[in-house]
Amino acid sequence: MSVPLRFVSVGLAAALYLAGVSVPAQETAVLPKQFASWTAASPSEVPSPLVPQVQRELGAGNAESLDYSNRSRQILVALQRYKDPSAAYAAYTLELNPTMQPSEVRKISAAGQDHVLMLIGNFVVDVLQAKNISSADIEVLAASLERHADHTPLPPVRAYLPEERLIQGTQRYALGPAGFDAALATLNESKFAPITAEIGFATGAEAMLASYQSEHNKSQDLLIIDYPTPQIAEQRLHHIQRVLAANSALAGATIERKASLLSLVLSPASAEAAAKLRDDIRYQTSVTWNEPSQTLTDPPWVVVLKGIFVGTFAFCGMAIAVGIAFGGVRVVTKRLFPGKVFDRSEDIEVLQLGLSGKRIDPRDFY
Fold first, then answer.
1. Greater confidence, 158 or 14?
2. 199 touches 167 (CB < 8 A)
3. pTM to 2 decimal places
4. Within a domain: residue 352?
5. Is residue 120 pLDDT above 50, yes or no?
6. Are 67 and 136 in contact (CB under 8 A)?
7. In this structure, are 138 and 184 located in the same domain?
8. In terms of residue numbers, what domain contains 187?
């Protein structure tokens, strides 16, 4: 199978504009003029393998492509930027095919048919005529481009796919209906296109597909769809089930939900093989309850008694100090100002019963 090349050239951009497809404004070029011992020669035109609908859905920006030469050797480097790394990853997976194998030049890269495909942030980079360049030089190029790339984390759903019996190059990631239909087409599963409208990409759904080898040289395709919440997943589950039940061509395909993840084995080799494949999905759920809490511990009785005695003595000491202070102020005032502030006779009244003829003088009390 021939590997399609990509990236919008100037002529193709004009054609897309005339067709009503918006083309992003010119952006700063990121391909270096020189890296390692390679020098840029002249720009080249590399058409994109993705249809305009997919390009628009993924927010494709301007494409770049340069010929590089190193003495008598030549390579072609083509770069396509996207709105974010998730969109770039979707485009990257659409360009994979089973003839390609994982490459060692980067964590997410593949090699096949004399070219190396790499995902660098929000860039998808294709190195053509790769037999003319060493892996070390490709790594230097990747490091140069990485300084300009968006390093937002990639979607977690890509890690849920089982590794056992996975057919490399069949992984497909989609975050919109156009990309999902394109992914189904590359896996020869276009008959499942009726479920596209029921997946609910507008709610934040993300889909991941891949082909797996089963017993007796049969293959089956696994589709997993990740949703923001279990409630949305449950709602979309019923929508997809109705489509599967109404379409006889989709007989045999069943869908299950685990928390916010839906899994569907397309064209299963057998019911047992489909169940085993679904069980191998690397998706774990955990329920956590976060609420304020505190740990109460009783102090030792010796500490309690110590606190009681110290508090009692402190209170008694404070009472004595206040009493002495109040009494001292009163005594000093009476000595300095006798009869002026305290114990003024004119302010004192004594109730008398009048049993004797002698009146009581209040000054006799002091």
1. 158
2. no
3. 0.71
4. no
5. yes
6. no
7. no
8. 155-283
Question: What number of H helices and E strands is found in the chain?
Answer: 9, 13
Alpha-carbon distance 360 to 159, whole Å?
106
**Do 77 and 131 belong together in one domain?**
yes
Q: Does residue 185 surpass a pLDDT of 80?
A: yes
102 in the same domain as 168: no
What is the distance between the alpha carbons of residues 243 and 198, in angstroms, rounded to a whole number?
Answer: 8
Q: Above 90 in pLDDT, residue 2?
A: no
Report residue 233 as tokens.
């997943």
pLDDT at 286: 58
Report the DSSP pairing between strands 261-266 and 206-213: unpaired
Domain ends where: 135, 152, 169? Answer: 152
- pLDDT band, residue 47 (cuts 50/70/90): confident
What integer pLDDT is reported at residue 362 of this predicted model?
59
| 3-class secondary structure per residue, 79-128 | EEECCCHHHHHHHHHHCCCCCCEECCCCCCEEEECCEEEEEECCEEEEEE
Q: Name the residue type at position 347.
A: D
d(CA 237, CA 264): 10
127 sits in which H/E element: strand 123-128
Judged by DSSP in three states, 96 sits in coil
Residue 62 lies in a domain: yes
Domain stop point among 258, 283, 308 = 283
Q: How many domains in the chain?
A: 2
Average pLDDT over every residue of 195-199: 95
Read off the pLDDT of each residue in 45-63 and give the average, rounded to a whole number.
Answer: 90
- Does residue 303 form part of some domain? no
HSE-CB of 308 using CA atoms within 13 angstroms: 7
Residues 137 and 186 in one domain: no
Tell whether 33 is covered by a domain.
yes
- The answer to whether residues 142 and 173 belong to one domain is no
Residue with tokens 């390679």: 38
Mean pLDDT of 66-94: 95
Amino acid residing at 13: A
